[in-house]
Amino acid sequence: MQALRSVAGRGSRVRCARVETFAEGLEQDGNAVRAAPTSLWSNAQAEGQITKLKLLKRQMYGRASFDLLRRRVLLTV
Q1: Over the range 41-68, which residues count as b (16 or more CB within 10 Å of their CB) and which as e?
Q2: What distance in Å separates the CA atoms of residue 35 and residue 17, rounded to the nearest whole number?
Q3: Does the global pTM surpass 0.85?
Q4: N or C: less crowded end of the chain, CB within 10 Å?
């Protein structure tokens, strides 16, 4: 956690807007950022399913009807 505070502190002194914005975000969400590594909860399973669905939608874009997309989604789940 000390390293995270160090990064946020150095980031606020850098003269790059993107790095400064990132450092400000770390400071604003400090409690959430510090709790993330120790939390027992994870949304990785949901994120994986969402990524899979987005991939299917991209593959099917402009190719067929909603019914075929629906079938592919239900078959892959």
Answers
A1: eeeeeeeeeeeeeeeeeeeeeeeeeeee
A2: 26
A3: no
A4: C
Q: What is the distance of C-alpha 48 from the center of its chain?
A: 11
Measured between its terminal Cα atoms, the distance across the chain in Å is 38
Give CA angle at 29 (28, 32), nearest 5°. 160
Single-letter residue type at 54: K
> For the segment 33-59, what is each residue's pLDDT rounded down to a tens digit?
778 778 888 888 888 889 988 988 888
Residue keyed to tokens 């956690």: 1
